[in-house]
């Protein structure tokens, strides 16, 4: 811990110097105006708190801008922002998954993301609308117990998990935003009828747990053969003691399957922000080199998406995951909730 703090402080110092140079250069963009951003911002944070705290500490060290965090989950916070409307105290919204961002976007509450920020995130990691941007990414994965399932018994597609032979053999956390994002991708890729059908099979076949870690723990303990979760729960546990994952192997569906969905975590600036310059600077920072290095070197094990920073080298590279192409702006959380409720999963 100590080592990383020092390293970040070093990075922050170097960055201050770099910023000074950039501000004097001719290429400065809309955001800085007559001076650097300053003051305070409030971030509604649905990302993992530990990750955002690392970002905030590095950002404040570099800019002096104070950041207040309000913590909640994706849908809880997107609903709150929509309810608060123009009066929202939020300057920035960060999520784990895209559907909650799409909800706030559809309510017309996001400002355009500064071009300098857009430019440092490749198109596949942000919505086509540029009303928000990807800040990190996570892959869908089936973690399984090798003693229970051999390699040739693994499903070819996530859709196979709805077949009768998978009854009682897999787990998920249907109430979580992580899992609902996977369903939103299925809906976008295969349409409503296919999604309804799959959810029906899921209700028959799967065991519900609260939280991805709990589902993985159940596989590890031999309670259930497999679980459909995100990759970082496995790598995070492995990096600690491995006590909840040592009996577990991650399986990637690849082949552009809905089960190979890579979910984009989002960041956006609210139109109603009273300190838009600082809010935009924060978004630029976390998608910039230093912000993305927090993903590369920290303990979140989420994928880096911006500024050409590679992901943590323990991870299967994003380029090898053969994820399906999905425009995150099109993911529809309201419809997913409706379909999952109909199927008796919520
Ligand atoms: Fe998560």
UniProtKB/TrEMBL annotation:
GO terms for biological process: iron ion transport. Belongs to the bacterial solute-binding protein 1 family. It comes from Arthrobacter oryzae. It comes from the Bacteria. CDD domains: PBP2_Fbp. This is Iron(III) transport system substrate-binding protein. GO terms for cellular component: outer membrane-bounded periplasmic space. The keyword Metal-binding applies. Pfam families: SBP_bac_6. The keyword Oxidoreductase does not apply. InterPro entries: Ferric-bd. Residues 1-22 form the signal peptide. Fe cation binds at residues 48, 96, 232-233. Keywords: Ion transport, Iron, Iron transport, Metal-binding, Signal, Transport. One of its GO terms (molecular function) is metal ion binding.
């Amino acid at each position: 811990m100590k080592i990383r703090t020092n390293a970040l402080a070093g990075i922050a110092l170097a960055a201050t110097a770099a910023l000074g140079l950039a501000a004097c250069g001719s290429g400065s963009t809309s955001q800085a105006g007559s001076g650097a951003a300053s003051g305070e911002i409030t971030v509604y944070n649905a990302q993992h708190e530990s990750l955002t705290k690392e970002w905030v500490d590095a950002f404040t060290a570099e800019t002096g801008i104070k950041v207040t965090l309000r913590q909640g989950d994706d849908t809880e916070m997107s609903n709150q922002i929509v309810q608060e409307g123009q009066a929202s105290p939020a300057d920035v919204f960060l999520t784990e998954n895209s559907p909650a961002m799409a909800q706030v976007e559809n309510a017309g509450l996001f400002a355009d993301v500064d071009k300098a920020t857009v430019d440092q995130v490749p198109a596949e990691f942000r919505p086509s609308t540029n009303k928000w941007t990807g800040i990190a990414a996570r892959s869908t994965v089936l973690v399984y117990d090798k003693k229970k399932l051999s390699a040739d018994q693994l499903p070819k597609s996530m859709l196979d998990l709805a077949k009768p032979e998978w009854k009682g053999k897999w787990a998920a956390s249907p109430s979580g935003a992580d899992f609902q994002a996977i369903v939103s991708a299925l809906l976008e890729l295969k349409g409503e009828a296919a999604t309804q059908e799959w959810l029906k099979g899921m209700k028959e076949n799967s065991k519900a747990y609260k939280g991805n870690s709990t589902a993985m723990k159940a596989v590890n303990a031999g309670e259930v053969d497999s679980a459909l979760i995100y990759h970082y729960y496995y790598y995070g546990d492995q990096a600690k003691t491995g006590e909840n994952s040592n009996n577990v192997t991650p399986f990637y569906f690849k082949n552009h399957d809905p089960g190979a969905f890579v979910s984009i975590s989002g960041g956006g600036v609210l139109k109603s922000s009273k300190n838009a310059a600082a809010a935009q600077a924060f978004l630029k920072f976390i998608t910039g080199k230093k912000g993305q290095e927090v993903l590369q070197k920290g303990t979140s094990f989420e994928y880096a998406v911006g500024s050409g920073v590679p992901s943590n080298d323990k991870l299967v590279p994003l380029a090898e995951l053969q994820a399906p192409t999905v425009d995150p702006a099109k993911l529809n959380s309201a419809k997913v909730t409706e379909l999952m409720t109909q199927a008796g999963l919520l």
